[in-house]
């Protein structure tokens, strides 16, 4: 979708060429080529087990046996300089149950931005993150006593500390009620629009695809499409992204069958 060498075109936030990940005897991701544009929401969609989480771990630099090219914010994925520039939310909430919400955020803020000289900056970042995820009223509550949705929001708040340039969110809306899902997507759009943050968000719920600026559709470790929701619908002559995805799956299966 993007040509980083084109005049006037900003460099992609994530640039992948021939990206492959092998686990055991088999490849989990196969020769992926894609760019994630800066300041936009890119959805990584596909069924469970297609390689979404593996790709996200590769982007944040925690995945082993990665080959090919994978540059993130102008650096090789996993570079130490990227640590404070990327916010990452895994599927399981990463919080300490015996700490309050504010204490959790203060702890992670100190890890990201240590030292006495940064104390006031950390305080501002914690307060802003609490406001972003609408947890200010629960700041003094123990994380272990929160609902599942609230715990997910604490993890998101941790990822927002320090206003990262890239947010990598692994199925952040799984198990949440429709109202909270809507509110989180509103937050994602506000962060991208107001702060210029790049967001890479995965989901297996196809209706969330319509909320993204661009889409990467994965199936069995292969990239089926890299386009906007509107272009996918138009190119496949379908009413929804889900129908377009199913059409692409059927086409890919038919081509493989012919090749046998």
UniProtKB/TrEMBL annotation:
GO terms assigned for molecular function: ATP binding; ATP hydrolysis activity
SUPFAM superfamilies per the UniProt record, alphabetical: P-loop containing nucleoside triphosphate hydrolases
Domain ABC transporter: 14-245
CDD domains: ABC_DR_subfamily_A (cd03230)
Pfam families hit by this protein: ABC_tran
SMART domains for this protein: AAA
Alphabetic keyword roster: ATP-binding, Nucleotide-binding
Highest taxon in the source lineage: Bacteria
Official protein name in the record: Multidrug ABC transporter ATP-binding protein
Species this chain originates from: Streptomyces tirandamycinicus
């Amino acid at each position: 979708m993007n040509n980083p060498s084109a005049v006037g075109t900003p460099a992609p936030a994530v640039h992948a060429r021939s990206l492959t990940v092998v686990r055991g005897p088999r490849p989990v991701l196969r020769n992926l080529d894609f760019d994630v544009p800066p300041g936009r929401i890119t959805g990584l969609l596909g069924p469970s087990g297609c390689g979404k989480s593996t790709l996200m771990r590769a982007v944040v630099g925690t995945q082993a046996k990665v080959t090919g090219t994978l540059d993130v914010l102008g650096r090789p994925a996993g570079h130490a300089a990227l640590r404070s520039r990327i916010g990452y939310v895994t599927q399981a909430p990463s919080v300490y149950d015996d700490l309050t919400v504010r204490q959790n955020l203060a702890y992670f803020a100190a890890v990201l931005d240590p030292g006495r000289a940064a104390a006031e900056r950390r305080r501002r970042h914690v307060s802003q993150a609490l406001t972003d995820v609408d947890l200010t009223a629960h700041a003094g509550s123990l994380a272990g006593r929160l609902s599942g949705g609230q715990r997910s929001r604490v993890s998101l708040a941790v990822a927002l500390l320090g206003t990262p340039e890239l947010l990598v969110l692994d199925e952040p809306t799984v198990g949440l009620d429709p109202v909270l899902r809507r509110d989180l997507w509103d937050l994602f759009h506000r962060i991208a629009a107001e702060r210029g943050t790049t967001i890479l968000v995965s989901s297996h719920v196809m209706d969330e695809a319509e909320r993204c600026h661009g889409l990467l559709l994965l199936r069995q470790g292969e990239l089926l499409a890299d386009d906007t929701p509107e272009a996918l619908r138009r190119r496949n002559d379908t009413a929804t992204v889900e129908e377009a995805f199913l059409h692409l799956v059927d086409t890919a299966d038919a081509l493989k069958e012919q090749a046998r």
